Amino acid sequence: MSEAAARPRVTIVVPVFNEEAVLPALLRRLAAVFDGERDRVWRAVLVDDGSRDRTAGLVRAQAVRDPRFELVELSRNFGFQSALSAGLARAREGEAVVTMDADLQDPPEVIPELVAAWLRGAEVVRAVRRSRAEQGLRRVGFDLFHRVFGALSDHPVEPNTGTFGLLGPAAVEAFNALPEHHRFFPGLRSWIGFPAADVPYDRQERAAGKPQQTLRRLVRYGLDGVFSFSHLPLRLVTYAGMLVACLGFAAGLFFVLWRLLDFERSPTGFTTLAALITFLGGVQLIGIGILGEYLGRIYDEVKRRPNYILKSAPPPGGNPAASGP
Ligand code: UDP
Ligand code: MG
After folding, report:
1. Ligand 1 pocket by C-beta < 6 Å: which residues?
2. How far is CA 163 from CA 61, 127, 256, in A?
3. Do 224 and 301 touch, CB atoms closer than 8 A?
4. Residue spans of beta strands (DSSP E) within 171-256
5. pLDDT digits (tens, 9 = 90+) for 117-148
6. Cα 56 to ligand 1 centroid, rounded to whole Å
7. Which of 12, 22, 82, 103, when mutated, tests ligand 1's pocket best, judged by the most ligand atoms within 8 Å of its CB?
8. Is the pTM of this model over 0.70?
9. Helices (H), strands (E): how many in the chain?
10. Quick one: which atom of ligand 1 is closest to the CA of 16?
């Protein structure tokens, strides 16, 4: 084996959306990490998710200066999970892929530790937060989500993990072969299996700019996570139905007996009826809503639309600015 073939190859995949404020720092710190470990073959694929600022231009300029960087552009904003899928699809055979956010909440300096864990034999490496920087509503939301998801999912996700981590070549291949449209990366990473390892790190504040994920999107990912990893909501509807039916039967029996045994004082029962009807109506609507959540997702899946559309990407051989093999 030649020396070049023996060097571990690692590609960093970063979805970027309107990140012109943090990009210079991100590119600089990634390049510093690459320079610090020259016995690996590094590559960074930045997936521009339809940015409306100078994000694409900044990455393109970097790709000209430094052939280790590549720009992949989507035709519009498809959302974080789709951009991530687009980046993972660019992985070449035998490469490990590090997945991370652009905003430097996931510090690039942790990457060598992820790679080391992979070289020690883990196919899936999760970066685990020792501390969380988010505050307020987002933090409450994340905590709540992880509690609900953990209780519902057949493949629980460690609460202090997110996108940041590494997939070995086999895990990347497994992930890229997944056919589904609605993707919740941490859940799928747990689903594909393989020996896993955890690397602790301190989550940082966003280095610059504003969060690009709207709360609405985060809620949607949360629902995707729950509904695509669990049938429990459906089962709960069944259980609730059985429970309500039993209660109704018991109540019916009770009122019939009351009528028979104590005719004088038995009530005419308008209030009871109204309460029962609204209660049952509510239970039924919730049930239909839960069915709808699954149905909508099934509809999206059977349409088989791609997760994203590329506007531009370097040729499969990589950044043309790179000279030689
Ligand atoms: N992002 C993206 N497409 C979007 C929204 C966000 O690719 O539609 C990227 C964003 O540039 C960043 C990452 O997803 O690299 C995480 O986004 P952000 O930091 O805004 O979200 P949060 O920290 O709240 O998860
Ligand atoms: Mg962030």
Report:
1. 15-17, 19, 49, 77, 79-80, 83, 101-103, 105, 211-213
2. 26, 8, 59
3. no
4. 196-202
5. 999 999 999 999 887 666 677 778 777 877 77
6. 15
7. 103
8. yes
9. 11, 8
10. 11
